[in-house]
Write a structure and sequence with these properties.
Shape: globular
Strand order of the largest sheet: 6-3-7-8-9-10-11-15-14-13-12
Strand content: 15-25%
Distance between the termini: 56 Å
Helix content: 25-40%
Structural class: alpha/beta
Length: 494
């Protein structure tokens, strides 16, 4: 056992005990975070407008600060982007993370000197909890790869702009720099396919012990490794590979294929990071769910998903939640987000400590590859593709095809036409172009050759009605979801 792995075990034990010190006192921990946030934002423009100086209790806060999404916060964000200080949080942020938007294109989420450490420490602590529980620390001496966005940043008004994963790359601790791959030069390659090929060339003769990334990106990396190695299993190429770290999308649809490609089962650690905050990580291989991070400068509120769209839904705090209930996740943070709906829904799997799973989005969505496509985007794309034409649509829905019989995965648009396009290929191209304009993540996946362009499948006359009838949902207020993150509807329609 190396000195490095011994030191890792000692550090892991220390972090584990530190975690217990706050996870054993969840309500008190969140109360302290709440007071810290209000106190530090009193003199900001947002704090003054919402009377933070009068807020003494959580009830006061909920009365003064309504639930918001990005559009509701955008006027403040625009001021911060121009370099104005003390708008949402004291001073101004050190970074803006560019992420996918809903109705307004890209979103820009602030990262401050107070919030940035939690993004770094959470990923580290997830690994340390794994070491503490399993005793497995040998991998710290091996090579580790983190598939992520380009670390190249642009600077405006004293603030750096970039993708979250690229920003985080600037904070890799020195003790990991020697083991970390790919090289900085390769990481800066913008074109994803070129980048993956370069990563394969750099790593194929190394003995990787840890591989981390969104499953869809890692799958592409594995496939290219196998192509270059003549079809070898990943475990044959990397004999020491025994830990996969992932986040961003559900791993389950990929698990069977991954295990087949790898050639053996490997341990995995699930993370719940977002530009808005690093919310949770898997702290145990034995328990279901991820530990909700209650001490990281984020105050959490929860709204039951089935009540979310009602007028003035109840906002629950950490001591009021139940297991097995679908909650919309609302956060207030030391980056200056207040009563912010991140769009994700979670369920608690444990209340001692508080562990969660990500159950979906508060609205229907597709994120099989991390693209976060929402209903508004597909409806807008359909509207744009049919505008000025004679095409008539009766009904449609969209689903991901993760494992096609051949070629790259794709989004399948299942459409019942009243009047078909004269040129189906041009129609599909128009849909795809609209989607790429609206959603930067989807555009990245197409550009990076992770997805092929939209595939349109014709549904027979009254096909949607027959499907709804078969489900006992014909008539009334029942509706076909515009999009799904699985193929239940799609496969039934076909």
């Amino acid at each position: 056992m190396s000195i490095k792995s011994i030191a890792a075990k000692i550090f892991a034990r220390k972090i584990y005990k530190k975690t217990l010190s706050w996870s054993d006192k969840p309500v008190e921990t969140q109360r302290k975070v709440f007071k810290y946030l209000i106190e530090n934002a009193k003199t900001t423009e947002f704090g003054k407008k919402h009377h933070f100086d009068t807020i003494k209790t959580i009830a006061d806060f909920q009365k003064n600060v309504p639930i918001r999404d990005y559009e509701d916060l955008k006027s403040y964000i625009e001021k911060v982007k121009l370099g104005q200080e003390n708008i949402l949080w004291k001073g101004k942020p050190i970074y803006f993370a560019k992420t996918s938007g809903t109705t307004s294109g890209a979103k820009y989420i602030p990262l401050t000197k107070e919030s940035m450490p939690s993004h770094i420490n959470a990923a580290r602590n997830a690994i340390l909890h794994y070491i503490n529980e399993t005793g497995n620390a040998d991998f710290v001496d091996g090579k580790m790869i983190f598939l992520q966005g380009s670390p190249i940043l642009t600077e405006k008004h004293g603030i750096n702009f970039g993708r979250l994963s690229g920003i985080v790359a600037h904070f890799v601790p020195k003790y990991l720099q020697r083991n970390r791959m790919p090289s900085w030069e390769t990481n800066c390659i913008e074109d994803w396919e070129t980048k993956v090929n370069a990563i394969v060339d750099e790593t194929i003769k190394e003995d990787m012990s840890v591989i981390s990334g969104i499953p869809s990106w890692v799958q592409m990396y594995f496939e290219k490794l196998q192509e270059k190695s003549g079809g070898k299993k990943i475990s044959e190429i990397f004999k020491k590979f025994n830990l996969f770290i992932y986040g961003g999308v559900n791993y389950e649809p990929y698990r069977a294929k991954f295990e087949k490609m790898i050639g053996k089962k490997v341990d995995s650690i699930e993370l719940f990071p977002a530009s808005e905050g690093f919310f949770a990580y898997q702290d145990s291989q034995k328990e279901k769910g991820m530990l909700l991070l209650l001490n990281s400068g984020i105050f959490y509120e929860f709204i039951k998903a089935d009540e979310f769209f009602t007028q003035n839904p109840k906002r629950y705090t950490i001591g009021e939640v139940e297991t097995g209930v679908n909650y919309a996740l609302i956060v207030s943070t030391n980056a200056g987000l207040w009563g912010y709906n991140i769009g994700d829904t979670i369920q608690f799997t444990s209340l001692a400590p508080y562990r969660v799973i990500v159950s979906g989005r508060i609205k229907h969505y597709i994120s099989a590859f991390g693209e976060h496509v929402i209903a508004n985007e597909v409806e807008s794309a359909m509207k744009e593709a049919t505008a000025g034409t004679n095409i008539v649509i009766n009904e449609f829905t969209v689903a991901p095809q993760i494992t096609p019989a051949s070629g790259l995965p794709y989004h399948e648009w299942l459409i019942e036409f009243e009047k078909e396009p004269e040129n189906m290929e041009a129609f599909a191209e128009a849909i795809d172009n609209s989607m790429r304009k609206q959603n930067i993540y989807y555009d990245d996946l197409i550009t990076g050759n992770v997805l092929q362009k939209v595939v349109v499948t014709k549904v027979s006359k009254n096909g949607f009605q027959e499907y709804m009838k078969s489900q006992g949902k014909l008539g009334g207020q029942n509706k076909i979801p515009r999009l799904s993150n699985d193929r239940k509807i799609a496969d039934n329609l076909k």
